[in-house]
Amino acid sequence: MKKTNSQFLIIVLLLALCPIVSLGQKKSNEQADNLRTSPKLVVGIVVDQMRYDYLTRFWNHYGDGGFKRLVNDGFNCKNNHFNYAPTSTGPGHTSIYTGTTPATHGIIGNDWYDKEIGEDVYCAADDNYASVGTTSDAGKMSPHRMNVTTITDELRLHTQMRGKTIAISMKDRGAVLPGGHTANAAYWFYGADEGNMITSTFYMQNLPKWVKNFNASGNVGKYKKPWTTLKDINSYIESGLDNNNYEGLFSGETAPTFPHDLPKLFKENGEYDLLKITPYGNSIIADFAIEALKGENLGADAFTDFLAVSFSSTDYVGHFFGVNSKEIEDTYIRLDADLERLFKTLDKKVGKGEYTVFLTADHGAIDVPSYLKDQKIPAGYFEFDSLKPKFGEFLKYKFGTIDIIKNFSNYQFFLDYDIVKNLDMQLVDVQNIIAKELLGYEGIDRVYTGHQMWQNEYTEGIPYILQNGYNQKRSGDILLVLKPGVISYPKTGSTHGSPQIYDTHVPLLFYGKGIKKGKTIVRTEIDDIAPTIAALLGIAYPNGTTGSPIAEVFD
Ligand SMILES: [Zn+2]
Prior knowledge:
The chain has helices spanning 2-35, 53-57, 67-73, 89-98, 102-105, 151-158, 172-179, 209-216, 262-265, 280-295, 313-321, 326-351, 369-374, 384-399, 417-422, 427-439, 450-455, 461-468, 501-504, 529-537; strands spanning 41-47, 75-77, 80-81, 111-114, 119-122, 131-132, 165-169, 185-190, 196-200, 305-311, 355-361, 380-381, 405-409, 412-415, 444-449, 478-482, 486-487, 508-512, 518-520, 524-525. It is of the alpha/beta class. The strands form five sheets. The protein has a ten-stranded mixed beta sheet, sandwiched between helices. A four-stranded antiparallel beta sheet has the order 13-14-16-15. The chain has a two-stranded parallel sheet with strand order 3-20. Strand 7, helix 7 and strand 8 (185-190) form a beta-alpha-beta unit. Helix 11 (313-321) runs antiparallel to helix 12 (326-351). The protein starts with a helix and ends in an 18-residue tail after the last helix. The chain binds zinc ion (ZN). Zinc ion is lined by residues 49, 89, 315, 319, 496.
């Protein structure tokens, strides 16, 4: 009886303890969940040259599964800005993925003058590597000029290289920089007479089978078809007239109007490079991203993978036709359909609720100044060449030679320090004298010196934006800012690069696992994206991070 009693007691005790044990396990799992959200896949989407107002202007044309899905079921940061200049593609992609600005990451332009070697350099070029998948030199790329780690690098480090990073873009820099130093692969498009997705020996010696298959499939060639509007052009009431003076003209066309007969225009307009200046370039990237999901088995295991996709045709179309064109409207309506296609594949392959997406842009763009002028809005064009004679005379008179200016790029003058030394003048005095002269020139709104960038800690306005873009080792001696509405560009099409608000205001949408539904009008900045994703995943921030996680987006 006694024995039975004690047996009974033990059983009762075990029964009582079991829930405690399993509760304890549950608790520690919950704690781990509180520490991090682990989607199977993070998808970073950059839309090249996407202004924030493209979301609102074309809203009525979007379907439910593309931009609207991200806005309605995700989190919309409505007041998101680039906090540095120059606002261009190389610095843009780098800042999104590194959580910092050119002052720290060192990508101060697409191209810049390298003071140390006295040569112009391209942000992603690297002659130490060879092309893979093309007979051209277009594959000789690497991220070696980027001084810091990316969010993709940190995920690779955190997972002991088990989480994969695949980066894809039409432009080399749109893939190489987001992929970071440790990407499994970065792929980009080579046009001309090839029309293939390519890479660099920095990543691999040979293309994987799925990429070879994609290139051999004839998929790209099927976009060599007339560019017609996706919907009835008469329903495109959110853009200007199809035929106007503010748009570029394809060689062989007499008016910039639909339909654009791509097969007929092909030879005369750079062959496969022509597809870049059409929405079909984005469709090619969406097709390839979908193949990458399958070919690389992304989001299939417990280690979070990262797919970085950059759509560049929006930028080419904006540069060529301008932000108010029917062509840009059609490009966004078609991109929306491509996004829906990509998200549907993610639902199927990775699973609804199992992945996290962010979508942003690498810079905004200006309305075509010649169009603004016709609407009586102050705007115009700045031609530096026209000032050269007067500026040259001034330099000769003050310093004895025009050679004191070694280079002008990204709206910055670089001085020849040997000449300055021989003048027996302080560098700061030379900078100030030149800055004062330039401020007197038509179209130049503000001038700052490298000395000011060194001496001050700006916290707002244009100087703050310039300083975040100012890298002490790489940037120039005198910094120019043109008037709002004024650009240095041909009279057709839009551009970007300035610290002005039309170049800095871009969308920032988060969606999916770990993300709350909602919106904010509180200012967020581009270097907040990487730390937000790092905080979500519970991993280390990229090592140059200056931004902060956006607290409101978390579930
Ligand atoms: Zn551009």
